Fold each of these.
Amino acid sequence: MKVVSSVVELEAVLAQVRNENKTIGLVPTMGALHEGHGSLVKRCVAENDYTVVSVFVNPTQFNDKNDLNNYPRTLDADCEMLQALGADLVFAPTVEEVYPEPDTRSFSYPPIDTVMEGAKRPGHFNGVCQIVSKLFYMVCPDTAYFGEKDFQQIAVIRAMVKDLNIKVDLRPCPIVREESGLAMSSRNTLLTPAERQVATNISRCLFESVAYAKEHSVLETHNHVVAQLNEIPGLEVEYFQIVDDMSLLDVHSWADAQGIVGCITVYCGARPVRLIDNIRYK
Ligand code: PAF
């Protein structure tokens, strides 16, 4: 497995790969890899001749400096894991390499990028589009893999790819959960063992709400999940929205859309750590 940090090296290696008519798959990450990333890499390795994994904590998608500074950085351990999974190339650039000049491009795909995370984290999806579009231009992958934990992120990237006519096949991958049900996230490492235990209530409530939803309205289901979680010391729901899986707009009845997903963000613990998760109702 090669590890490169410059765009020139990256392009040289990939030119050779393309000369050999090999398909290229990309798994964009911010590092601090866990089994969730592992599942994306495994799938990428299985479905492509050549797997590129980018490891880059993208400053432009953080609207909170503390969050950026606290984001775990574990490149050596990440590379060990990627080697074992059969990745071919790790692209781990510096901020200056990716942004030699400030990125002044702005992306806007309302309402997909303005609701939920878009409303709570102004500028976040603009930063995601900046980095993901750059990675797509640098790597020119045939396929790219993203985890469904970031349900809204996938929708925004899909809109961007369509808007910019980028020829890449986006492959969303299911959420990977710890045995406790907690959705895997690099942020879980910021939780104490006790907080991690408390955090398992998020997925538990979401799973239970699927059965509850069969006999209750959207509003009742919404209120039930929020009330249950807010009662637990150490948890505070920032938002829970039950949305059409295409438009990401709130639904008011279970008949309002063909696909319906509940997206939640919860603050957990003393720091606190912001955790996201989602559940499909139909
Ligand atoms: O999901 C992430 O880890 C990041 O948002 C991504 C897609 C790697 C862009 O920095």
Amino acid sequence: MRKPFIAGNWKMNKTVSEAVELVAKLKEIVKDERGEIVVIPPFTALFEVKKIISGSRIELGAQNLYWKEKGAFTGEISPLMLKDIGCKYVIVGHSERRQHFNETDEIVNLKIKAALENSLIPIFCIGEKLEQRDKGETLNVIERQFEGGLSGIDESKARKIVIAYEPVWAIGTGRTATPEQAQEVHSFIRTKLRKKYGNEIANCAIILYGGSVKPENAHSLIKQKDIDGVLVGGASLEAESFGKIIEEGWRAFREK
Ligand code: 13P
């Protein structure tokens, strides 16, 4: 049985004190909520945020990782370090990393494997650019990223992965995919999972939508059959709007 999954990717925002303030507020707001609630602060705030959310309903995620466990890789953060600090999730393959830091499908694949080997759950992001959508290439792009990222990953590992469909043209632009556009891609992804890993994994897999999710559009998105939750950027930076999205997610799930 899938449950609503709402994650907030804070990206490169919030000092430690701002992060602490935000998550303390959020903890009060989500006291009685069910489902999976995840905050994904910058690395510098992970430790302090973890202290505040311990024993609460909120889980911790990181925004990136390197695929080696330790060594001479100046500036990088390893899966062991994330595990040690109390992360349950890690975002892999976000379009901002693909775009600004040249992350290829091969690198994304290495990172997914490293996360899984260290018992971190990857939130594996895929999504097309506007020009690709306009040329009718959306599903080809999704297929290529899906196959590239999951190459060599067997069923026992695949069941732990969360997938996030984030159309690049909808990220930070205020332009959300319509529920129908998102559902079409989500359904395609679930079918790909079914073909690759079988019914059970496809039926249980959590597939999130991301891209300008707000309290106003969360319900209609999450109500779609194959949308299990959302990965929120901008609207997760305020406790009130993120709390409202969590509420809407739960309401949409009850109505499915
Ligand atoms: P926005 O919600 O700000 O569009 O960001 C989405 C995103 O990239 C989440 O990972």
